[in-house]
From TrEMBL:
EC number of this enzyme: 5.1.1.1
Function: Catalyzes the interconversion of L-alanine and D-alanine. May also act on other amino acids.
Species: Sphingobacterium hungaricum
Active site: 485, 710
UniProt cross-references to Pfam families, sorted A to Z: Ala_racemase_C, Ala_racemase_N, Mur_ligase_M
Positions bound to substrate: 583, 759
Lineage: Bacteria, Pseudomonadati, Bacteroidota, Sphingobacteriia, Sphingobacteriales
Protein name stated in the entry: Alanine racemase
Cofactor(s) for this UniProt protein: pyridoxal 5'-phosphate
Positions of transmembrane segments: none
SMART domains linked to this entry: Ala_racemase_C
Similarity comment text for this entry: Belongs to the alanine racemase family.
Biological or metabolic pathway of the protein: Amino-acid biosynthesis; D-alanine biosynthesis; D-alanine from L-alanine: step 1/1
Keyword Ligase: yes
Length: 812
């Protein structure tokens, strides 16, 4: 696309060290863990939570030879065959490059912003406009300062329409996005409460978002809450809403049909009816934005109706599901373009639980007319370390002999599904990438292991976010140990550990050796501490390089004897000290005899000395907590001095990271906070990781004389509507939630349990809300309140979610 010398000129590099001026830059890289194609890639060393300059060595080792940096003191001589461009601001550099590249696009760019609905509208428009245009759309939710730059980089004149998202969270951010995108057409989806704290007022928020369209020729927007005086003077406006002055005036919204909405509206003095396949308000509004856009692009109502009715809910995230026969299914079966394929392949490569990796890929819309795009696809596929590629489509795009892995092709999804018994997928990770027309979601349903409709969704992006929140609170030299015991607090050990390893945590901790074995066999290489070892697991500890917590003389002596018999030397152990928790650990007065044993035993080497704070979150116990910290430090210093080498010292748990910075020592142990629960109530901005959902199985209309559930405990005092949902105490939903104690949410409305909780079912009183069979139910609207209502803690609710509940992992 551009030579390195051209890039240097475009980004106005302050200094350049170019040893290979002819190299052409084709890919932009910002994360050394996500390198798919090293050749012709340019690495941008951003200074964020973690300094990108620290990963230049890793990127170089993986084949990257072109870098944009801001650290003028980097020892460039270490990389003699690499090109370096030195700038003052790396983010500004990549934005300048993206803005320059965008100017080379000769067709229409449509910019999409708003508080909500940006990604859904973009995805729907991509489908709706694909008959007339070869549409490029920014992948997933790439709408940030960096995401927009990466989106625009993949834009080429092989497309004739671009849909680009732009998202901001505070004042002053849109200017940089507008300079990059420069949309000819603007779409403002909505104005709401999202990121409200970043703006001085609602009006200022509208103005800031509207500045994306400062040079636009046309603007589509909802008139509710957005006055016409906010519209840039240069743009022809197309508003929709309830006002007579709106370009498209909504006259009636009819919700009488289940799961559908009938709209009646006026456009250009004519009245039309339109049936859309959604009932919720957000989807209706997003559909109206799409309808308005299609009208502004010259579509007739007849064309629009035939297209709108085919829309389906947008799955905006990669989903990782447990598959049959020990497989991991990465389901991204609703979208397929080069940019999203690359994201999917990056996620597939992160999965370490299986050595075998399979890609199931359908034809891409728009690819057939572009030889250049076909070449890009083939190059990407050739560089993958796959076991098998299964291609769905009737076009012969791929030459099997050019691949280093197995290849199969099916004309359609139905043929592939019919062949599943013969394919016999097992012990592998499978990425499913498909255009909607191929309905690869049908294939996904056949491959996923559990059909139980209660599911626990785990947001891996939120997990990463929470991890970074706590990292920001720590000095850079403090290590981080992540707690993944008890099936990662119910979230799933392997999948969570994979994400944590990918994010470079220093240690993982499990309760029992078999949990560690599961992680090791799934490809986890991060050091693992085992909290509850016993003699029966010693062999396992050695075989799988698991480091035991040593808390008593008996376990220490037994382990040393075992190591002597095996001839092992300097095996790492962790010494547990009882400073006041009085659960496990050596007491302060036992330090001398412990030292005697440690000094004479060459079979072991102490890696860390640690303890547990008994009341880190209690302000009333600050004196006691301080005493515990001092006791551990004294104990550890005594060991360190006598042993003659450095030991890691750690006592801080999640609460202490927030409330006890003096307890950081050499390492901290992050547990429940990583999963989005802040027991200190410190407004850290944590994101919810786990969401337990179920569905409505049946609805019943009962009069006030009836009762509900076992022992007739559910008494009715009015004619009532009762919903039975697919979760019970066998799924981990505590029986104490029965008889009105438990609260769930359906369509955003809170409802109470009625009657006793059954083994597999729970009944809810839904008399006062609109509910349909099959509706999704949020089991814990607020897990902290739910726990408090039955006198327990969120930990217990998470770890008791049954293994029969399907875990679905997704990365937004």
């Amino acid at each position: 696309m551009y030579t390195i010398e051209e890039v240097s000129e475009i980004i106005r590099a302050d200094q350049e060290i170019i040893v290979d001026p002819g190299v052409v830059i084709k890919d932009l890289i910002y994360d050394s863990r996500k390198i798919l194609q090293a050749n012709n890639s340019l690495f941008f060393a951003f200074k964020g939570i973690r300094d990108g300059h620290l990963f230049i060595k890793d990127a170089y080792a993986k084949g990257i030879k072109n870098f944009v940096i801001s650290n003028q003191h980097l020892n460039i001589l270490t990389y003699p065959d690499a090109n370096f461009l030195i700038v003052s601001d790396v983010l500004l550099a990549i934005q300048d490059l993206a803005a320059y590249h965008r100017k080379t696009f000769k067709h229409t760019v449509t910019g999409i912003t708003g508080s909500n609905g940006k990604t859904v509208v973009k995805e729907w428009l991509g489908q709706l406009l694909s008959d007339k245009f070869n549409v490029y759309q920014s992948p997933k939710s790439y709408n940030s300062q960096l995401g927009v730059a990466l989106s625009l980089w993949n834009l080429s004149n092989e497309y004739d329409l671009a849909l680009i998202e732009a998202g901001i969270s505070q004042e002053g951010e849109m200017d940089a996005l507008e300079k990059m995108i420069r949309p000819e057409v603007g779409i403002f989806t909505s104005i709401g409460q999202a990121h409200a704290s970043g703006f001085s007022s609602k009006e200022r928020k509208i103005q800031e978002k509207m500045s994306l369209f400062a040079h636009s020729d046309k603007l589509i927007y909802p008139s509710e809450n957005i006055s016409s005086h906010f519209v840039p003077y240069n743009a022809v406006s197309f508003s929709w809403g309830l006002n007579k002055s709106d370009t498209l005036q909504v006259l009636e919204i009819d919700h009488s049909k289940i799961d559908k909405t009938l709209l009646r509206f006026r456009y250009e003095e004519n009245v039309y009816q339109l049936l859309i396949p959604f009932a919720d308000r957000a989807s209706v509004e997003n559909c109206l934005t799409c309808v308005s856009t299609l009208l502004s692009f010259g579509y007739s109502f007849e064309q629009i109706q035939s297209k709108i009715i085919t829309l389906k809910p947008v799955e905006m995230r990669l989903q990782l599901k447990q598959g049959k026969n020990n497989t991991s299914i990465i389901d991204d079966s609703y979208s397929n373009d080069l940019a999203s394929l690359q994201i999917g392949l990056e996620f597939l490569n992160q999965q370490q639980q299986h050595a075998k990796k399979t890609l199931i890929l359908s034809e891409m819309e728009g690819l057939k007319d572009s030889q250049k795009m076909q070449d890009k696809l083939l190059k990407l596929l050739h560089q993958q370390n796959l076991s098998m590629l299964i291609f769905v489509g009737d076009r012969q795009l791929i030459n099997p002999e050019s691949l280093s892995y197995s290849f199969l092709q099916y004309n359609d999804t139905k043929s592939l599904v019919a062949d599943l018994p013969k394919l016999a997928f097992a012990n592998e990770s499978i990425l499913i990438k498909g255009s909607r027309q191929f309905h690869l979601e049908d294939l996904s349903k056949h491959l996923v292991a559990k059909s139980h409709e209660t599911k626990l969704e785990i947001n891996l992006k939120a997990l990463e976010h929470n991890l970074q929140v706590y990292r920001k609170l720590l000095p850079k030299d403090v290590k981080l140990m992540a707690m993944v015991k008890a099936f990662s607090y119910g979230s799933g050990g392997v999948e969570v550990a994979n994400t944590l390893q990918f994010n470079h945590v220093d240690y993982l901790t499990v309760a029992f050796a078999d949990e560690g074995v599961e992680l090791r066999t799934a490809g986890i290489k991060t050091p693992i501490m085992v909290m509850s070892p016993d003699e029966s697991t010693f062999e396992t500890l050695l075989t799988y390089e698991l480091e035991p917590e040593i808390y008593s003389f008996s376990i220490l002596e037994s382990f040393i004897d075992f190591l002597v018999a095996k001839g092992r030397k300097a095996f790492p152990i962790h010494i547990k000290v009882d400073t006041g928790m009085h659960r496990l650990g050596f007491l302060a007065e036992e330090v001398k005899p412990l030292l005697v044993l440690l000094k004479k035993s060459k079979e072991i080497r102490v890696k860390s000395v640690f303890s547990h704070l008994a009341a880190a979150g209690e302000d009333s116990e600050r004196i006691f907590s301080k005493m515990q910290i001092e006791s551990l430090t004294t104990f550890a210093n005594t060991l360190e001095k006598a042993l003659g080498y450095s030991l890691l010292k750690h006592i801080a748990n999640t609460a202490a990271i927030v409330k006890w910075p003096e307890a950081n020592l050499d390492m901290v142990r992050l547990g429940i906070g990583m999963y989005g629960i802040d027991t200190t109530h410190s407004n850290l901005g944590l994101e919810q990781v786990n969401t337990l959902k179920t569905t409505v199985t049946q609805l019943k209309e009962l009069d006030e004389s009836e009762t509900v559930g076992y022992d007739r405990r559910g008494k009715l005092f009015r004619p009532s509507r009762i919903a039975t949902v697919k979760i019970g105490y066998a799924d981990g939903y505590d029986r104490r939630f029965g008889n009105g104690v438990g609260k769930m949410k359906i369509a955003g409305q809170e409802v109470s349990t009625i009657g006793n909780i059954c083994m597999d079912m729970t009944m809810l009183d839904v008399t006062d809300i609109q509910v349909s069979e099959g509706d999704e139910v949020l089991v814990y609207p607020d897990i902290s309140k739910a726990a408090s209502s039955i006198g327990t803690i969120p930990y217990e609710l998470l770890v008791t979610i049954s293994s029969r509940v399907k875990r679905i992992y997704y990365y937004e």
